[in-house]
Structure formats: C-alpha cells, structure tokens
C-alpha cells in the first residue's frame, strides 16, 4: 500500500510558546506534518533550553549545550530567533502570521497586545488564522492575570488531593504526579481544539480564538473523580495505589517485589481468587460484586494482601496472564524501554540533530495506516532556521538578515 503525506502536510504553524504546554501542542502538530516555525528570544530562547542537566550527547559521548527537557517537546520544528520586543521584530512576526494557518502562544493575558501580536491585531490581517492562547487561568475570570505553573495547578485543581498515600498511613499526604500532567493535558486539549477549529474553517473559511487554561484542563481531567464528588457531595480523598471505584485494583506485595493487579469486573475477580488459592472469596456475598467489594474493601484487602505474599512476583504475573486477569510489573523507565512490546511499537526513535549528530526521542503514540507521523529532525538549535525562514518566507536579503541577527 502506498503511503500518503502526513495528515497536516501543507499546514503552517507560528509557535510563540515556551516551556511545556504550548510546545507539547505544537510538537503534536509538527509530528502530524505541519510546518512549525518556533519564534525564540535571541541569545536565550525557550526557557527550557537552560533546564539541564541532562543534555544531549555528541558522537563522543560528551555533553552538548542542548537540554534534554527542551528536546522532549520541540522536535520537527524550525527555530527562528527574533526579538518581538522591537518594532522590527514584531513586524516580521506579523508578516509571518499572514502566511500561517495556526498561531499558538502562551504569554500572559494581554501580553502580546503591545507588540500588535494579540488575536484582534492578527485577525485584522489574517481572518482565516486559528489563534490558540494557553495560560494558567484563561482569558477571563478573577485569576486571569495570574501566572500559572503545572505544580501549583495540580494542587489548586484538586489532583494532589487524590494523589499520594492515605493520610492515616506512613508517607501519607499530597503528592504531585511524576510528570507535568496539567501542562501535558493542556497541550493535548489544545491540539484537539486546534484540529476542530481547522475542520470548522473548512466550512466557514474563518479562523477563531481558542482560549485554553491549565486550571480548566486540570479540573476536566479529574474525570470519574469529578462525578464521584458531583453525584455525592463528598470529595474523594487520597487512596494511595488503590482505586476509588474498583476493588481489587492496586499494588500488592509479592514474596520478592511488587505488582499491580487491576481487576475490572466480577468474572476477573473470580478467576483471580482461584489463582491465589482463595476461591471461596468470590462466592462470599460481601465480595461477589464490585459494588460490594468497594463497600467491604477494608475487610477484603488484608485477605488478598496475605495471599499475595505466598509467591514471587513473576509467578503471579504469569499465572494471572494465563486466566486473563490484568496484572503488570512496576517498571523503571529503563525497564520500559527494554520491554519487548514498547520496542515492537517503536516508542524510541533516533533523529538527526545539528550538534549531537543523532538524538534519541520518545515517539508519538499516534499510528496511521496510510498517512503516518512524520519524523524529520530532532529539536533545533536556537535560531538554527532564522536565515532560511526570513529569506524564503519573507524575502529578506542577506544584509537585512545580518542586521537583525547582530
């Protein structure tokens, strides 16, 4: 079967974002084939360029100056170093916006107005442009002017109230997630919004403003926990590695380590009880259905905990897999990339990089049968494409470019 171009081939994106939420969104668009022009501050660039170590390694195993954090969210993009605080620089970005389909920015509310780069100013020169603003709290409301960072949003948005060990157990207390999930989910929601607006533009011929807020996205992603509260009026609390609505669905200690058992229905529970040598538990009316298991959690879990100590982790994993009960190990990230399924799915890629030669990247999870994700190059050096973009897109001469970059 012949492959078709990546889905967003021919779409051009002007990227005025930095750190993670915005760059994660624009990296998604770049992976899908869009041409992404990332505007960065001359001499400094995206804040995350300085968020190291670790740094990418060169061919001799020595550190480059390219932070791994920056590299994680900026592949497939072109870096153009322009100072938008100058009249000339802002003017060049406005000219670039005329040629773009999408603009994504994460400046504070109103921060781009003084440069003539706010939505209303850009809409006046390119009414078909889709303009996505990403902030901590959105363009409206009493907190609109506040800065917002992932860690504080995880706390403010309720995630940390349900993450971490129970308060009455050792190590109890609020805990953030191991990656910046509020940023990442905002980047993902922003991608969805932009693609929807792009589809709508096919009917109307017009762009629009998309207002994305980290806090909104954090609240939305509470999912079933939102409804646990909204239907009862009782706020869920931290449950450690247990599940609020399923039992057993948690970490258990085996004789030589730990594993996750994730029983999703009553049939699986019956099979699980037979494997661990406690078949009578699945016929006990207190435990026969999931709703009863949730109610009688404090009685059931100690019985299961004791049974799980009888065998080694791998014994349980193999036995549970044979009967179709979901279970898995708790891997380090090193073990993740050694996993045969992760390898088979190509979740690590290597892309050309201007100073490292070759750079590892974590792959996109998107799989298309006919128009696959487009891996072109790793994250760019600061200003690597300034001359190319200004010459090809805006027709600037070498002399004009030299004046700008001095």
TrEMBL record:
Regions that span the bilayer: none
Polar residues bias: start-end ranges: 344-357
Family annotation (PANTHER family): SUCCINATE--HYDROXYMETHYLGLUTARATE COA-TRANSFERASE
Keywords, sorted A to Z: Transferase
GO MF, one annotated term: CoA-transferase activity
Keyword Transferase set for record: yes
Protein name: Crotonobetainyl-CoA:carnitine CoA-transferase CaiB
Stretches the record annotates as Disordered: 344-363
Pfam families (alphabetical): CoA_transf_3 (PF02515)
Species of origin: Pollutimonas bauzanensis
Cross-referenced InterPro entries: CoA-transferase_III_domain, CoA-Trfase_fam_III, CoA-Trfase_III_dom3_sf, CoA-Trfase_III_dom_1_sf
């Amino acid at each position: 079967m012949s492959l078709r171009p990546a889905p967003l081939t021919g779409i051009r994106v002007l990227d005025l974002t930095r750190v993670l939420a915005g760059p994660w969104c624009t990296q998604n668009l770049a992976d899908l084939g869009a041409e992404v022009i990332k505007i960065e501050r001359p001499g400094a660039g995206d804040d995350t360029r300085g968020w190291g170590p670790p740094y990418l390694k060169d061919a001799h195993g020595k550190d480059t100056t390219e932070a791994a954090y920056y590299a994680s969210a900026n592949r497939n993009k072109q870096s153009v170093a322009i100072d938008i605080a100058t009249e000339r620089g802002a003017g060049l970005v406005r000219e670039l916006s005329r040629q773009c389909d999408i603009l994504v920015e994460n400046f504070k509310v109103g921060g781009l107005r003084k440069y003539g780069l706010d939505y209303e100013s850009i809409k006046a020169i390119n009414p078909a442009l889709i303009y996505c603003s990403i902030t901590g709290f959105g363009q409206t409301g009493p907190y609109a002017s506040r800065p917002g960072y992932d860690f504080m949003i995880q706390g403010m948005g309720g995630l940390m109230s349900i993450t971490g060990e129970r308060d009455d157990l050792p190590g109890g207390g609020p805990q953030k997630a191991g990656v910046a999930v509020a940023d990442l989910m905002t980047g993902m929601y922003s991608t969805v919004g932009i693609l929807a607006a792009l589809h709508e533009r096919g009917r109307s011929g017009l762009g629009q403003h998309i207002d994305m807020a980290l806090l909104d996205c954090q609240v939305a992603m509470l999912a079933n926990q939102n409804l646990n509260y909204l239907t009862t009026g009782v706020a869920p609390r931290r449950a450690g590695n247990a599940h609020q609505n399923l039992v057993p669905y948690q970490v258990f200690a085996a004789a030589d380590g730990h594993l996750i058992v994730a029983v999703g229905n009553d049939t699986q529970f019956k099979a699980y009880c037979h494997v661990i040598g406690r078949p009578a538990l699945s016929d006990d009316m207190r435990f026969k259905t999931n709703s009863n298991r949730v109610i009688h959690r404090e009685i059931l879990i100690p019985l299961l905990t004791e049974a799980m100590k009888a065998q080694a982790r791998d014994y349980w994993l193999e036995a549970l897999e044979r009967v179709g009960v979901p279970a898995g190990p708790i891997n380090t990230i090193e073990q993740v990339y050694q996993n045969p399924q992760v390898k088979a799915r190509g979740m690590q890629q290597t892309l050309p990089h201007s100073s490292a030669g070759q750079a590892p990247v974590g792959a996109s999870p998107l799989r298309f049968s006919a128009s696959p994700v487009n891996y072109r190059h790793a994250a760019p050096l600061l200003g690597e494409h300034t001359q190319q973009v200004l010459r090809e897109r805006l027709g600037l001469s070498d002399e004009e470019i030299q004046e700008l970059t001095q």
